[in-house]
Amino acid sequence: MSCSAVWGELFVLQSGGEIRGKWLNPDESPRTVYDLRTDSGGRIRLAEDQVVRVVTESAEEIAYAKIRATYSDTVEGHEKLAEWCQQQGLINQRKRHLERILELEPDNAEARAALGYRKVRGQWMTRDEEMAARGLQWHTGRYRTAQEIELIESKIKRNKAEKEWFSRIKRWRAWLDKPGKTEQAQTNISEIRNPYAVRALAQYLEDEPVPAVRQLYMDSLAGIGTPDAINVLVSRSLVDVSEELRLNAIDHVVRSGRRDVIKQYIKELASKSNPRVNRAAVALCELNDSEAISPLIDALITTHRRKIPGGQPGQISTGFSPDGRSAGLSAGSKGPTWVTEQLRNPEVLAALIKLTDGVNFDYDELAWKAWYTQHRRSTAGGSRRD
To answer: Class for domain 166-300+344-385, per CATH?
Structure first.
């Protein structure tokens, strides 16, 4: 049977029946009646409340509706219909006939193959069933384990929640500058306890120029208290331009009870930035852990490079910092140059004195190291005697 290039509609009725025909008044608004012409040329008018929905059908679908009842409900009949549907590109209809073949003849190999089945250990299985037996499911483009799917879904959920928090905090930040909204905004931000808000708080904290607002964000992070939130506070204790806020961040970190941050601060003692070295020492002093003693000794005097304006070509100069903490050698040139400096770190010394209960060898690293070696030996010996 050939198909002409015509279109029709399927009218699904409240009663459960169906009528096919050409819809004659699709543009009527508001809808009061459905006016249609049937294939036989008759005209039908349906009340608006009689119709559930209207489905537009292609010429192939209309032809299929006409011929399907002419075939017998046998394997042979459904095989012919399945082949016809394949030629017309009617994928879903073809599948229904293949499935009916399997109801009539479960071991029909051709129908099984067409539906994607293959025999696995003597049983017919689709690819999905085979992979499910191995604990795998199709998800986002390939078969995955339940654990992989859970991680993907968790990440999607997290991303969505984090975007929502970016939007909320942005709105509340705008309220801080609006009379009548300020108090509510302060309350909303201060009461944040959702871990999904950490990323937004960290970003807005970095971009915020007003110290009081930065403090508000930091207090919220401390209230959340997750490892990610505390890590943001560790970062602020090292980079914030306000000394007061840096010290407040350290207070929050200390109160969190997180001891793993000690290693983060110890790592900063080797920073190329001299201010970060001293700020890390301040934090280690407050955390009061003997694990930091040896790294602090190594950081009493640190070497850093500093960029200075250019001098005369070939000029060599020796420079000292105003406080006498550093000395460096530089060669002049037309452009800017770099000076290598050795800097004494007063906050490192202060932390050492506190952590060693008042021991003080000033900036004499050799004396400190000798003392520390002896201290460890005596401590180890005492432990053995105990």
So the answer is: mainly alpha
